[in-house]
Specification:
132 residues; mainly alpha; three-stranded antiparallel sheet; globular
Amino acid sequence: MQIFLDFESDEPIYLQLKHQIIAGIAKKELKPGDRLPSVRAMAADIGINLHTVNKAYQQLKQEGFILIHRQKGVVVHPEGVPEADEAYRIKLEQSLSPLIAESVCRGIGEKEFQQLCSRLFEKFTDREGDNP
């Protein structure tokens, strides 16, 4: 899996890195138990500060995407990512709410918003062209 960072983006580098690793897991480019580079190696490979990588890794660890072992290094969680629970669903709703409000303000209707969501889901799953 290759990491591409946009240093001109408003999104912080650690979030870009975190989001790309999550996308790699979602697309099955990274499988449970796969090793990721150490903090130092990742920082050197993509040319960023090691504290930036550490921040992304710590958040991924807290959210259950990766494990960090002293001997084994950084690995995609061997048991897979925990299933969504009620707390995650609440967090998801809180994250989507401002996006939907802004979309409404900008004239994007519910159908167009749902179509965009469907296209994005297709990027991360094997259901391309398989709309329920």
